[in-house]
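Before the break, one more example. Copy the sequence into your notebook; we will annotate it together after we see the structure.
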Amino acid sequence: MPSSGLFLATATVFPWLNLLWVLVGITVLLFAVAGVGRWLAATHPDAPAKPAAAIPVVVPGLEEEITTAIAAAVYVTLGASAKVTSVTPVPPHAVSVENLMLTWSLEGRRQIYTSHQVR
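Here is what the structure looks like once it is written out:
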């Protein structure tokens, strides 16, 4: 068994040897974590998902096609166990004077920039 002095002398002559041992240690650790994860997955299976009963959501003032499309989108993205509990329509925002002025100022700025000649 080499003494610690010999190991330090080897490490100073071959500095990549320390890096090699670090990489070997990280690799062993990753394989150990993966093995424990696979063992836990094999011994603790997920509970079977219960299919949710389809309850139609009725929203006054909203067409049936829209609620059907929302329910279909939820089913496709979240799976069969998800269900729509409520749908709340958002009222449209009123057009404000600030937004109109912002649009006009952006258009004016665009016209000024496009009128300049590039050198």
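The mean pLDDT is 78. The CA atoms of residues 5 and 27 lie 27 Å apart. Try to locate both features in your own notes.
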